[in-house]
Amino acid sequence: MSAILFDFIGFLPITLILLAVLSVLHGRARTVTTNKVFIEDHVDSIKPESISSQLPVLGHLIHYLRDGPSYFSRLCLSTRAPIFTIQIATAKVTLIQPELARYLPKLKNVGLNPLALDMFQRSLGFGKFSSALLQEADEASKRVGRHASRMFREEFIPSQRLRHYAERIDSYIQSDLEKVTSQDINVEDWIFKSLIGSIGKAIWGGDDGPFVDEDFLTHLRHFLLNVRALNNPATWFIDKSFLESRRIVRERLAQSLSFEEDPAQGERDRQENHGRKDDEGLLDRLRTLCRDHGAPPEGWIDYQLLLIAGLGPNIMGAATWLVYHILHDQRLSASVRREIDHLHEESRESAIDLSEVPATCPLLYATWLEVLRFHGTFTLGRWVHEDTTLAGTYHLPKGSYALAPLTPHHFDRAVWGDDADEFRPERFLKKDGTFDPDVKKKLRVFGLFGSVCPGRFLATNMAMTLAIRLFSTFDMTCRPGEGVRIAKRTQGYSGWFGVARPGDFHVCHEAEARRKVTDYVEIIIHQKCQKSHDRT
Ligand code: HEM
């Protein structure tokens, strides 16, 4: 017994010492862990306030299904908190208000592609490979995303590439104008085919690619206009014609740019079969990227479709709105036409320089910017790959969405004035009628997070070229009894996201052509170009 007691007493100090050491170690360990936790798990960061709906559990989901991302905007406009969370079914969503926007470019561990996957997986018919790639669950697929983003920047931003695209797009638009024979033009349909056709031909191999085919463009439009319907998980409810158009588009893309195992053979085939030497660039590099990542042929079709869905609908919607607004407002229409006529007179001996449009056609340019503000009411966002913090304070959990609706930015009276709800291009002009670059800086339509749209300069060039060519050629008036309806904050072409889609399509009457296409002066982008005007 005494031995046991001794043993016990004897062991007591040792045990106490051990406990003391352990507790110190544990304390240190806790300090280390706490610090680590602070950095990695954000124990000390603030969990944004959660906003529940009046109807528990299903409320947010029902509102979202009914209103799409404009529900996010509504919530932001009616909530004071700079950041808050909502739960939509199983999805955790953090909504971020304009006052925290300046921290968004620094947000780490987030990605754009998983969001694109959510938007397009079902509607574009992505297979397993592309879904895994866009989900970016591993480092390799994140690398592919970064690599592709770099390719887009290299392709669409340098002025030499811009000039290449602007020239080609202008020549396609001119030849489309030459083909207009009817007095009735369905403006939206015409602009879709001309603009998407031009950029498609410029990227997908000129006169040999799928975009040269009117039938392909008809199916592409039918399919893109119905992306939201195609997102329905209950496929038997989807109109068969939407599925058929998607099938035809996928088939044509598969035929147009094959996915051979042997790149050298592919190169030979391409040169022999299509002679497409001058536009190897982007698509070839993207195809190699997909192939190197082990993509099957369908994965390559998915990727092409993603590119079309990414670059087409926004420019399409915005350019159509531009034309609609000019047609809608007679005073604006007369002033813009005067600017364009003057531009032609001044440029008779030389060329129209797109980089000078803010100075030479300030009202046209201001109308374009106002279109981007007024109809750029979609929601930008990121998928949160790992726990992270915004502004060093607010916790964004792994596996959630960080979303920033644009409406609170673009309709903020404190920023745009009391007439923020009106469509008023003059807000982008100074009192003397010249373009005001400071106002343009307030636009957020090309991005808020770390990266911005690589096609933003090209988009502006495309819209300006289209407007200058169209209004130089035709005096358009609405068909009797048909007015241009300017519906605000409608859904985009690609479902809920993207620039709002113009409402019903309006058939306009085309009077005598004002100018023959052969009378056109050249459109160029001058060397000094872009940067000063077009940074948004
Ligand atoms: C008015 C027209 C357009 C608008 C409003 C627009 C807007 C945007 C926005 C908001 C993003 C996401 C940026 C981000 O959060 O990082 C984006 C991405 C992108 N845009 Fe545009 N865009 C337009 C036209 C174009 C055009 C004409 C092209 C190409 C010729 C283009 C190519 C792209 C590409 C490739 C991406 C993906 C970038 C990446 O993955 O890194 N966009 N665009």
TrEMBL record:
What terms describe the molecular function in GO for this protein? Answer: heme binding; iron ion binding; monooxygenase activity; oxidoreductase activity, acting on paired donors, with incorporation or reduction of molecular oxygen
For this protein, the record's Gene3D superfamilies field holds: Cytochrome P450
Write down what this protein is called: Cytochrome P450
Origin species, per record, is Apiospora kogelbergensis
From the broadest rank down, the organism's phylogenetic lineage runs: Eukaryota, Fungi, Dikarya, Ascomycota, Pezizomycotina
